[in-house]
Model the fold of this input.
Amino acid sequence: MLRRVMGVLMVIFVTTSASASDFGLREADLHAGESVNGFPNWGERLILAWMNRARVDPQAEMAKCGPACGEAACYAPVPPLAWTAALNRAARFHADEMRRQGYFAHDSKCRIVPSIDSLYPAGCDGSASCACAGGTAGCPANDCTSWMERVSLFGSQPSGEIIALGADPDQSFYLWLFEPFGSPACTFTLQNGHRWLIFKAGGGVGIGYLDSTRAAVADFGLAPPPYRIPSGTHSPRQAASVEMWANWYDTAAPRSAAVVVNGKCTALTLSRGSGTNGAWSATVSGVGSGCHRYYFSFIDSAGREVTYPATGSLGIGCEEWNSTRAVASCPSTSTPGPGRRRAAGRG
Done:
């Protein structure tokens, strides 16, 4: 049975925005989509892509939720959430510590050691013996580490957190998005807080997802402006045919968009949102077994190629990311589509 936490939701505390210069970063330095010591994994990538897909056209998702989502009219298209390594690591650590220590809540069940950022995951797997001060769970002085303190230990300024247990990443995402709330009031509440953060939070997000327990954590916080392709993935994880999804966010629509699988181009269609803030998709067949490497290739309005991941390729049926890439020069054949309304994996 799927489980969702409805009680403890964290409001958005950080409302300030940041520019790339605040982080000392340029777009070329972001290495978007590349794995950093195993972060993100496929499930984490998928949930981020679903969040950004929903944000370009909230009404497409709310139409599927129906009357249960009473405040559907409150949501309008917004910019994508940017991935950050610090938030990703903080979120996965929390998924791990909940699993290792046997609980399900936002705050930790002990006082987390200050050095956890340098210890996790190679030197500490989230167990109390290495993650907790004194090596044991519990808070004799009533000083357990709060969720905000925990995220801050990983070097990020937090603004919110949501957690879930679902059958898979897709189910976890829709547990958050489709929580029933009948009021038309356009305000954050404990009853609609998961959805509110997905649609309203600014800045960035890091997803923590573990196949072993199907625990999902999303930590929201301060982040640099998103890469022009802020997210991209495939779904399901492997099947005879899979859907490829990528978001584009820029001041102008791209000239073309494609996904390159095993060195072969497949044109992407604008399926949701607009040319400047939209989700593009295609279906690729013949990938039900074996390893298939891919990357997304957009040509911007000035004729420059932007890829996701920035370097290397993602994998279907094999290593999530590696530095290899079968390069292809794709023709400019992508055109905006009629706006598909179906979420992958749902009717």
